[in-house]
Amino acid sequence: MTDLITPELVALDLVATDKADATRQLAKKLQAAGRVTDLEGFLADVAAREAQMATGMPGGIGLPHARSEHVTVPTLGLARVPGGVDFGAPDGPATLVFLIAAPAGGGSEHLTILAALARRLVRPAFRQTIIDAADEAAVASYVQSEVGS
Amino acid sequence: MTDTTRPGSVVTLTPNPSLDHTVEVPVLQVGEVQRTSAALVEAGGKGVNVARVLAKHGHRTTAILPAGADAQRMIGLLEPQKVKTFPVPIAGSIRTNIAVVEEDGTTTKLNEPGATLSEQELRALLTAVGDHLEPRPAWLVAAGSLPAGVPDDLYARVAALAVQANVPVALDTSGPALAAAIGAGATVIKPNLEELEEILGRDLVTVGDVIDAGRDLRAKGTKELLVSMGGHGALLITQEGAWWAGGPPLVPRSTVGAGDCTLSGYLHATGSPDQRLATAVAWGRAACLLPGTTVPSPDQTRACADAVRVVADPDPLQAVKDVAS
Description:
The structure holds two protein chains of two kinds.
Chain A: E1 10-11, H1 19-32, H2 39-52, E2 61-62, E3 65-68, E4 75-85, E5 94-103, H3 109-121, H4 124-132, H5 136-148
Parallel strand pairs in A: 1-4, 2-5, 3-5
Antiparallel strand pairs in A: 4-5
Chain B: E1 10-13, E2 18-25, E3 40-44, H1 46-56, E4 61-67, H2 71-78, E5 83-89, E6 95-102, E7 107-111, H3 119-133, E8 139-143, H4 154-164, E9 169-172, H5 175-179, E10 188-189, H6 193-200, H7 207-220, E11 224-228, E12 234-238, E13 241-246, H8 258-268, H9 273-288, H10 298-305, E14 309-312
Parallel strand pairs in B: 1-4, 1-8, 2-6, 4-5, 8-9, 9-10, 10-11
Antiparallel strand pairs in B: 2-3, 6-7, 11-12, 12-13, 13-14
Helix pairs in contact in B: 1-8, 3-4, 8-9, 9-10
């Protein structure tokens, strides 16, 4: 089975003007990795989901996500945004952004990823390990081991 | 009763979860300092309890609940019980409830009000429910009290989401939250007799009174009415008819969570209404024999099944509390 997250899907020092920009930059990585077939179509699906409910979570987390017909395999993109970007969380901007992309026909797959992530994000050590990781490969292997299996 | 198919997946919503501490004392002495048994700590809240007992009986279960910095504690307690937690992050904390159980089974519960949810946290909770309805679980169970800051119509909105997604929904709550939800199209509600009297604003003395209540609720959109009556068993009123089920008196070790197990048994059972009611009562009785909110295993619920007696079309003129005799 394809890994949920690989080093190519990680951005360590993302600079973004707003959440749409942050999401677009991450989505481009998914597209480059061949996991998203139509960038604009996918971004529209993410924006539709984001419009229902802001996905910012306390603790500096942005969690844009969508099931989309433009996604080939369940995928997690991750960006560290040291300058922060507003995802609508009550306690301030997000410094970690997780982009969850799941194929449209995936049933509850996207929920499984979302739930696994939600359970770990409430653990400060999980966030800190990602923040402290030395490089993309370290982030990807840690998150894959925690959420992907 | 045998299970021929794999039990369906169940999603529960617990807007006001708790960390339940249960201590045992011989006799509770108010105003005194007393030593208790070591506290048994369990993940609590009605929806959480339903998820726990159904997971123990083979169902895939997800418990959606708001949780703050202490979410890890809840997740840690539920993980070994095969309940998947879906925490919706909030600024507040999960409340602590304390149950004091005396030798004779008398239980005194001290429940904190719980965290206050902001409008945004409430929307996040509803969004999580909506997301979980997409894969069409066998049941959505929304249960328990509402935390501060949450409007009374939360369960009505949850039920409406489920109806829209074509997912059967069970509600177990009381007071204004239940009253607001009776027109929302729930598949089943499970009040106890007092809770049902409260929302209807009238006394329910005879079996006929409860049958009428079931008919009134059905006219408003709630399909099935399961009324738990503690030691007096339970009544089920559906479009097809009315049934009572109960068993010989037992000495309860703890009645905390027994109602949650009753509802769970009803959701677990397949087959005719009388079989489902019998299973509900057996599960509730099994729960009473266990300390705290410990949930019964399949062996324990099965062991209670034989003692349960079902009466179809109980006499409407009989007092509800006399059907057992």
